[in-house]
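Need a sequence for this fold. Nothing fancy.
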């Protein structure tokens, strides 16, 4: 009787462990990218399959002055950036970089994007791991050699912490779909994403 109970208990334990393994959360990763005003950058990646969350913020400076008023002075060394949380089983870091350089912003513009001018609007990748840094370096080499753009690639690889922006800047396009800036500069990016990457589009 004791042996039968032990086997039953062992079987129950195995079932419990199997259930726990299945219920374990998926391994998510993060990417931090800077490419001009974070409103449009955030909106683009919110519509990419495999992306779980996008946060607008500031990267490359210190926590002390990571706020919109200070960053807009162009004296803090921050870049307006977004932090993307994504499922690498659904979309790769390389695919995110491709969307970043072909849809979300213009990688040839130095210290500006469209009407926004200054170092805080620079094109920069902030790798979150050694693997991401190596991949980003290879990606930029390939991008420069591809001659996809007639102008030099301005995107840099940088290091620095990420600081979430004020609540008023989060989900800006979703909350302000008819804001003049959004209509003119950012809504066309969503149309381009849907057209260029229909397999990755998420409504």
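Here you go.
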């Amino acid at each position: 009787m004791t042996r039968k109970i032990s086997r039953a208990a062992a079987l129950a334990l195995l079932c419990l462990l199997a259930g726990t393994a299945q219920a374990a959360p998926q391994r998510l990763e993060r990417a931090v990218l800077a490419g001009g005003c974070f409103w449009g950058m955030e909106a683009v990646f919110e519509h990419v399959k495999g992306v779980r969350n996008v946060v607008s913020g500031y990267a490359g400076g210190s926590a002390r002055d990571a706020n919109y008023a200070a960053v807009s002075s162009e004296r803090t060394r921050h870049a307006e950036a977004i932090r993307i949380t994504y499922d690498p089983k659904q979309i790769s870091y390389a695919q995110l970089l491709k969307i970043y350089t072909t849809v979300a912003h213009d990688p040839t513009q130095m210290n500006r994007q469209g009407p926004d001018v200054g170092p805080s609007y620079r094109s920069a990748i902030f790798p979150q791991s050694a693997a991401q840094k190596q991949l980003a370096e290879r990606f930029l080499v390939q991008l420069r050699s591809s001659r996809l753009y007639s102008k030099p690639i301005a995107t840099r690889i940088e290091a620095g912490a990420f600081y979430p922006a004020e609540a008023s800047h989060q989900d800006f396009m979703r909350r302000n779909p008819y804001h003049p800036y959004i209509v003119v500069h950012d809504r066309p990016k969503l149309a381009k994403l849907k057209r260029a990457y229909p397999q990755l589009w998420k409504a």
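For context: The chain has one domain: 26-200.
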